[in-house]
Design a protein that fits this description.
Elements: H1 5-34, H2 36-65, H3 70-83, H4 87-95, H5 97-111, H6 117-129, H7 144-178, H8 184-198, H9 201-215, H10 232-270, H11 273-280, H12 285-293, H13 298-322, H14 328-337, H15 341-369
Helix pairs in contact: 1-2, 2-6, 2-15, 7-10, 7-13, 7-15, 8-10, 9-10, 9-13, 10-13, 13-14, 13-15, 14-15
Length: 379
């Protein structure tokens, strides 16, 4: 019995795809037998690269769907400037209008905006991997790498300080209130944790800025108005003064959920049989809390720390806009409003790569700290 040619062709295609998949996965299967953790890390890195590729394609498609482009904005600004100028300049602008309109298409061709979004994305990837260049901003004409690095350090400093404070106080308060479970102190702490966790972050930032404006105790901006090289000591104290309210908003918004997670994990651990066995041996409660139950709260925190870091970076966008903090979130906002494609894509990919790298690092730390986790055949 002979099968139709279409079915035979489909079967051959499936066989061919299976061979390709087997060939591609062969190095990973060999590495998994020799070193399961290394195979897991390699797989996560490959997954991260695929996600970044799809993210970049989606960003180019979204920018294509947005009404207008940067050339339209340039033309609008030029017309607005000519309308606000003198009558002589107005007449000259009217005479040059046809010339300007004729240059519009040429400018789109120079910037590559006349191509489909997938062709623009292919050109961008070629520039990245072949020429190792992120391009230049379409607005300021400055190198994109310079703009990102000049703002990225400010955002990293702000978010790392927030992460350290949130982590330290969450563990201290979570462990302490787990020992006071059911008391009035625990109920009050849980209420305030839920209140600040559910409170809108943008409203809290606006209220804190209004507080700074009315009282004059703190500046309404989040960054000093002079560079670090001018006076490092003065800049450090001024920086602490400027970022106190933004850090307070970030802390209040993040400590509630993390503290409740650690508190609930501690309570779960304290009800397990091994805790009863330790108590039966006469081991002190302090040692049980700190040496045994506390260690097991690290696993869920490490798992959630990548999400916490991602939420801090995404939340810093609003923070940087409201408090005029020169970070990467505000740079992204300015690039999106101006439709600066090169800057938007590079900025988004950079932040996404940091978040995905944080997730991979959290998985590695989890495997290193917990001997029960093995990324082998049974994982």
């Amino acid at each position: 019995m002979h099968l139709p040619s279409s079915i035979q062709g489909e079967a051959r295609m499936k066989t061919f795809l299976k061979k390709i998949a087997g060939t591609v996965s062969f190095p990973f299967r060999c590495l998994k037998k020799k070193n399961p953790l290394a195979a897991f890390i390699a797989g996560r890195i490959v997954t991260m690269a695929v996600l970044l590729f799809l993210l970049g394609l989606a960003l180019f498609a979204l920018m294509e769907l947005a009404p207008g482009d940067i050339v339209d904005q340039m033309m609008t600004q030029q017309i607005a400037t000519s309308m606000n100028s003198s009558s002589a300049a107005k007449s000259q602008a009217v005479q040059d209008s046809s010339f300007t309109s004729g240059q519009e298409q040429k400018l789109r061709e120079e910037l590559g905006l006349d191509k489909p979004f997938y062709s623009q994305y292919a050109d961008w990837l070629k520039r990245i991997f072949v020429h190792h260049d992120l391009g230049v901003s379409l607005i300021s004409r400055a190198p994109v790498s310079f703009l990102i690095l000049s703002r990225l350090k400010n955002s990293i400093i702000l978010n790392l300080i927030s992460l350290v404070f949130i982590t330290s106080f969450s563990f201290l308060l979570g462990v302490y209130f787990s020992s006071k479970a059911g008391t009035r102190t625990d109920v009050a702490a849980t209420f305030f944790a839920l209140f600040f966790h559910a409170f809108p972050g943008i409203l809290l930032l606006i209220l804190l800025q209004l507080f700074a404006s009315v009282t004059g105790l703190f500046p309404v901006t989040g960054f000093p108005d002079f560079p670090f090289s001018e006076n490092p000591v003065k800049f450090s104290f001024s920086y602490i003064h400027h970022v106190f309210l933004p850090l307070l908003a970030s802390f209040l918004g993040g400590v509630g959920g993390t503290m409740r997670m650690i508190r609930s994990t501690m309570l779960d651990q304290m009800g397990l049989p091994y805790i009863m066995a330790l108590r039966s041996r006469g081991i002190s409660e302090k040692r049980i809390y700190l040496n045994h139950a506390f260690k097991n709260t690290l696993n869920p925190y490490i798992t959630g720390s990548a999400n916490l870091l991602a939420s801090l970076f995404s939340g810093s966008l609003i923070l940087e806009i409201i408090f005029a903090y020169p970070g990467i979130g505000r740079l992204m906002y300015e690039a999106v409003t101006q439709q600066d494609v090169n800057l938007v894509l590079a900025n988004s990919m950079f932040v996404s790569a940091l978040v995905l790298a944080g997730m991979v690092i959290s998985d590695i730390l989890l495997a290193a700290l917990d001997p029960r986790i093995r990324y082998g055949k049974d994982s």
